[in-house]
Amino acid sequence: MKIIIAGAGAMGSRFGLMLHRADNEVILVDGWQEHIDAINKNGLKANFNGEEVVERIPIYNQNEVSTIDFSADLVILFTKAMQLDNMLQSISSLLHEETKVLCLLNGIGHEDIIKNYVPYNNILLGNTMWTSDMEGPGKVKLFGDGSIDLQNLGAGQENVANEVVEVLNQAGLNANYSSNILSSIYKKACVNGAVNGLCTLLGCNIADFGKTTYADAIVEQIVDEFIAIADAQEISLNKDEVLAQIKSSFNPETIGLHYPSMHQDLIVNNRLTEIDYINGVIVRKGKQYQISTPYCTFLTELIHTKEEILGAK
């Protein structure tokens, strides 16, 4: 399958590498020129569960990709949420009527942008529990196991979704078809909303946060706000399941030693974060549904304050 990885950061590099190794025709598209130059010169380097590997995968700057001859069967979106529209504009010449788009971005509501570029029936929403760390331009650290849940948005397009599931599974990405992806997306958003911003502000990995005296109480308050907003939209979430998933992430033998992507963006790379598309969405929807969201509000404001202090761009 001819696949575009749109957003070749830590997670995009993982998916690109694994799909490339499964004999798909993969290209990476990104806006970080130093990263692009490093991959073009030396290949994509990865510590892949302790094994040092190098894969030669074509990568292009999104501002120049319109000049290449490539017609995508599948686009997997891994941009930051605030970069989504610009990325889709950049790759629009590589899309056609049958191109499928799988959105694996953190956050909620991205289909409203994607439908401006491909037919609604071609959109797949998903979430992933895989992790990846960027160790520098052209180099990533891939460790542990993960999974993907995905679903078609268009009615009667289950066969399309299952074709994508099969391609992902051939690459070892542990994909599953979901009949209720919005519930899964909100569940993932709960995990991100309870962990990403706090680890970023506290300057710690997930396990270190989980070991603190106050972690459980803070997490439960944040999860309660997410569940209240989900309930208002008739999206079902099981609080005990969500809390169990968050607590499982504290385990240093699974992903506990991982620093969330928000920490990598702001603290390591001095970039603006996706907080407005995670906790900030809950704040906006809270105002819409007249539901109080004090923890998400304060966390969103603190992250934006930290962005200003650091001069993030």
UniProtKB/TrEMBL annotation:
<dbReference type="InterPro" id="IPR036291">
    <property type="entry name" value="NAD(P)-bd_dom_sf"/>
</dbReference>
<dbReference type="Pfam" id="PF08546">
    <property type="entry name" value="ApbA_C"/>
</dbReference>
<dbReference type="InterPro" id="IPR003710">
    <property type="entry name" value="ApbA"/>
</dbReference>
<dbReference type="GO" id="GO:0008677">
    <property type="term" value="F:2-dehydropantoate 2-reductase activity"/>
</dbReference>
<dbReference type="InterPro" id="IPR008927">
    <property type="entry name" value="6-PGluconate_DH-like_C_sf"/>
</dbReference>
<dbReference type="InterPro" id="IPR013752">
    <property type="entry name" value="KPA_reductase"/>
</dbReference>
<dbReference type="GO" id="GO:0015940">
    <property type="term" value="P:pantothenate biosynthetic process"/>
</dbReference>
<dbReference type="InterPro" id="IPR013332">
    <property type="entry name" value="KPR_N"/>
</dbReference>
<dbReference type="GO" id="GO:0050661">
    <property type="term" value="F:NADP binding"/>
</dbReference>
<keyword id="KW-0566">Pantothenate biosynthesis</keyword>
<dbReference type="Pfam" id="PF02558">
    <property type="entry name" value="ApbA"/>
</dbReference>
<comment type="function">
    <text>Catalyzes the NADPH-dependent reduction of ketopantoate into pantoic acid.</text>
</comment>
<keyword id="KW-0560">Oxidoreductase</keyword>
<comment type="similarity">
    <text>Belongs to the ketopantoate reductase family.</text>
</comment>
<dbReference type="GO" id="GO:0005737">
    <property type="term" value="C:cytoplasm"/>
</dbReference>
<feature type="domain" description="Ketopantoate reductase C-terminal">
    <location>
        <begin position="180"/>
        <end position="307"/>
    </location>
</feature>
<keyword id="KW-0521">NADP</keyword>
<protein>
    <recommendedName>
        <fullName>2-dehydropantoate 2-reductase</fullName>
        <ecNumber>1.1.1.169</ecNumber>
    </recommendedName>
</protein>
<dbReference type="InterPro" id="IPR050838">
    <property type="entry name" value="Ketopantoate_reductase"/>
</dbReference>
<dbReference type="InterPro" id="IPR013328">
    <property type="entry name" value="6PGD_dom2"/>
</dbReference>
<feature type="domain" description="Ketopantoate reductase N-terminal">
    <location>
        <begin position="3"/>
        <end position="153"/>
    </location>
</feature>
<comment type="pathway">
    <text>Cofactor biosynthesis; (R)-pantothenate biosynthesis; (R)-pantoate from 3-methyl-2-oxobutanoate: step 2/2.</text>
</comment>
